[in-house]
Predict the structure.
Amino acid sequence: MALGALIAMHQAGISPQKVFVGGVDATPDALAAMQKGDLAVTVFQNAKGQANGAVDLALKFAKGEKAEQFDWIPFELVTQQNYKTYLNK
């Protein structure tokens, strides 16, 4: 949705540098928009970490072991200062 908002802003002649636009998922397109300076922030959701956490919990449940009801995998804020570290994730 953030990328769609950026497209609409460009079509309307509104500079993304004048409006704070943030998104979720740190997709390659979002990171490219950050590189151009259009997208202010995005959030990386660690799919590998989420999958590993889900399998670990499923194994615990299957073995009858106690487990937390929720196993939070923290989101990671991606900014202009650190977006390059997410280019190949």
